[in-house]
Specification:
The protein is α/β, with parallel strands linked by helices. Helices cover 43% and strands 16% of the residues. The protein has 14 helices and 10 strands. It has a 5-stranded mixed sheet with strand order 7-6-8-5-9, sandwiched between helices. Strands 3-10-4 form a 3-stranded antiparallel sheet. The chain has a two-stranded parallel ribbon with strand order 1-2. Strand 6, helix 6 and strand 7 form a beta-alpha-beta unit. The radius of gyration is 23 Å and the shape is globular.
């Protein structure tokens, strides 16, 4: 078809008020979108979006069903993404995103979910342990290859110790907490609601991530889905902005919703809320933090294949 006749065809469609099929958003073939749901440690924007049905309300006009599997670990989220059972990992640890990308999972980081250095803590029940230096030759438990693990190593190096100066035991946060309370370990890596609860039980914080890490949590999308449905991904991000607006405009209601969903007291929610920065734009500082995280993972044998961090990120904002 010549350019002349093509222009006539376009003009005819415009006059008739018809949208050209070739320019239409290609979202009609999407029937379901999977979005992981993680409410702890204190994932307020995710909780508000879930309890207010924000994603459901956004996509029901397209006949799209939203599924919200509760996959609380990073590896489970990225495995589900690799299997195409979810399209969005809504609350994903930076280390999990990097490891998954290194292992061949085709994902892209499209936003920051939170930065929360104060939410990640090293705690003990031993009153004689008052600083990181007091951890020398002690047993510390926590989840390996996570933000908490990275914080521990950064704290050790800052105070003149090395990872070989302690014995690290890989445990989930609940297991590490139980091991500490039973006296089987000297310190535990804990986050979020565990902190005020353990303080009530007689434990104290030795250090948190402030000045050591950003505590970066990200939002990731299946890259194949992003390529095919960029419009839907943009709308996903629009919903996250609506959640942030609700939080800003309805703080007391937000605290009530979060407390009910997490079985925390409103007081504890209010105490922890300032620990988190939920602004979503990816900054240069965030990119640097991702690079630092990758170095930690490589140096400690938790990943083998180095990636280009900039290839991990996709800025889809206009």
């Amino acid at each position: 078809m010549t350019r002349y006749y093509l222009s006539l065809l376009i003009a005819a469609f415009l006059v008739a008020g018809t949208v050209l099929p070739c320019f239409a958003a290609q979202s009609e073939d999407v029937k379901e979108i999977g979005i992981t749901y993680v409410k702890f440690p204190l994932n307020v924007p995710a909780i508000i979006a879930y309890k207010k049905n924000m994603f459901e309300n956004e996509f029901k006009q397209d006949g799209i069903t939203i599924t919200r599997p509760e996959l609380t670990s990073g590896p489970k989220q990225t495995q589900a993404m690799a299997a195409d059972s979810v399209q969005f990992a809504s609350v994903l640890g930076a280390s999990s995103a990097i490891i998954a990308k290194s292992n061949g999972v085709d994902l892209k980081v499209i936003a920051v979910f939170a930065r929360a250095p104060k939410a990640f803590n090293i705690m003990t029940a031993n009153k004689s342990i008052k600083s990181i230096k007091d951890l020398k030759n002690k047993i510390i438990a926590g989840p390996k290859g996570t933000v908490l693990h990275q914080m521990l190593y950064a704290a050790l190096l800052k105070d003149g110790l090395t990872p070989s100066d302690i014995k690290f035991v890989n445990m989930s946060i609940p297991q590490a907490r139980a091991a500490l309370m039973s006296g089987n370990v000297s310190a535990a890596l804990v986050a979020g609601p565990s902190v005020p609860d353990m303080e009530k039980g007689g434990c104290h914080v030795i250090a948190n991530g402030e000045g050591l890490i950003q505590g970066l949590i990200v939002v990731a999308v299946n890259n194949n889905f992003l390529k095919k449905h960029r419009d839907l991904v943009k709308r996903y991000l629009d919903v996250t902005k609506k959640s942030a607006e609700f939080m800003k405009n309805n703080p007391e209601k937000t605290f009530e919703i979060v407390a009910k969903e997490t079985n925390l007291t409103v007081e504890n929610v209010k105490k922890m809320f300032p620990w988190y920065d939920y602004s979503s734009a990816i900054t240069d500082k965030d990119v640097k933090d991702l690079e630092t995280t990758q170095k930690f993972l490589l140096d400690n044998g938790m990943m083998k294949n180095k990636i280009n961090i900039k290839d991990l990120i996709s800025n889809i904002e206009p």
